[in-house]
Amino acid sequence: MSTGNDLGSNPRILIRSANWIGDAVMTTPALMALRKNYPKARISVLARPWVEPVFSGNPAVDEVISCGSTGRNSSIFEKMALARSLRSRKFDLALLFPNSFESALIAWLARIPRRVGYATDARRMILTLPVSVPEDRRNRHEIFYYLNLVDHISRLSFNTRSKNEEVSKGRAGLFLEVPAQGESGAGRILNQMELDQGALLIGFNPGAAYGPAKCWPVERFVSLGKALVGRFKDCHVLVFGTNKEVSVAEDICDPLGEKGHNLAGRTSLAEAMGLISRLDLLVTNDSGLMHVGAALGVPLVAIFGSTDPVTTGPWSTNTVIVRHDLPCSPCLKRSCPTDFRCLLGIEVEEVLQACLQQLKAVYGLKLEI
User: Fold this and answer.
1) For the chain, how big is the Rg over CA atoms in Å?
2) Paired sense of beta strands 235-239 and 114-118, if any
3) What is the number of other CB atoms lying within 10 angstroms of the CB of residue 350?
4) Strands 281-285 and 319-322: what pairing?
5) Which domains does the chain have, with CATH numbers?
6) 233-256 residues labelled b (16+ CB within 10 A) or e (exposed)
7) Is the pLDDT of residue 137 over 80?
8) CA-CA distance, 324 to 345, in Å (whole number)?
9) DSSP readout, 281-302?
10) What is the pLDDT of residues 179-188, one digit of tens each?
11) How far apart are CA 113 and CA 36, in angstroms?
12) Residue 180 CB contacts under 8 Å (≥ 6 apart), including other chains
């Protein structure tokens, strides 16, 4: 147990996970930094079911707690039930990655004595350490937004200093490990598609949860797929997506015949992670799976429209970003209010050349044509 401001050497820490896959992946450097600062702490992550696989294999995490349906629209009774469950675990500190009032309210209801998070969404009064949003947030990558909270936790301990010198110099890395069920599931799916180890596997991720302003046109994914399977023998295109993107994925796969494989809505996140880890290349919009690919070290071609790769780009050196710098970009809008120039201006040949650049860099383009 710790007293006063001192967290002690083995505090019980609750992390409230970010709610979306990409954001969750971008918090992993902060988790690793927290573990480095508190090697004997018991660190628990409270996560939505759909992001739990991001943390299940993380060595910085002792347990993952599902928060089920207790979102912004859940009832106060559901929030109180979750809070009672957390209260029984007697956490010393709650670190809140989401900016929502709801995340701080549950930590307050759980009577966790130290509650650290950004002073957003009218929640300053129920945080014990409200942190001001950094002035340079729009100029630095999002991973530093989360790392900044870990640096502030050091103020709560008399005996622990921040050990994030490598972080401040920009060398923080993402961490993601494919869960066992993801590995086995990926193997099963590839066997069902009769894809052997000699196949060139290229993933397409044509969707994006944020909105259509992040999505390169479907017909251009089709043309890119045709160019790749026409150029390389044994090239197969795996199209990822959610249940909402099944028809989009089918529109891409149909023209590719037996070389196109629609996986939209047919995999869990763990299985998608397993499949992405086996890709030779992932072509993707700015999305959660883009960050999964970056964390797994997969060669990426990332297509950007309304969003800013400086702040939310793939945190990886194995990436080619395709983007047109326009006076209106990055507008950060979900839908384009004008003519969608940022993405309509990106031609198939431009993305194809980026794909060939990545394949050549990684494999020397020693691929049968």
Assistant:
1) 22
2) unpaired
3) 13
4) unpaired
5) 12-168 (3.40.50.2000), 184-363 (3.40.50.2000)
6) eebbbbbbbbeebbebbebbbeeb
7) yes
8) 7
9) EEEEESSHHHHHHHHTT--EEE
10) 999 999 999 9
11) 22
12) none
Segment 33-44 shows an average pLDDT of 94
Length of the chain: 369
Residue 111 and residue 32 in contact, taking contact as beta carbons nearer than 8 Å = no
pLDDT higher at 314 or 168: 314
Rounded-to-integer distance, Cα 64 and Cα 24, Å: 13
Asked if residues 47 and 67 have their Cβ atoms less than 8 Å apart, the reply is yes
**Rounded distance between C-alpha atoms, residue 264 and residue 286, angstroms:** 17
Torsion of CA 88, 150, 108, 23, to 10 degrees: -100
Q: What sign does the dihedral 210-95-109-84 (CA atoms) show?
A: positive
pLDDT at position 173 over 70:
yes
C-beta of residue 51 within 8 angstroms of C-beta of residue 21: yes
Query: How would residue 220 be classed by pLDDT, with cut points 50, 70 and 90?
Result: very high
Can you give the pLDDT at residue 157?
59
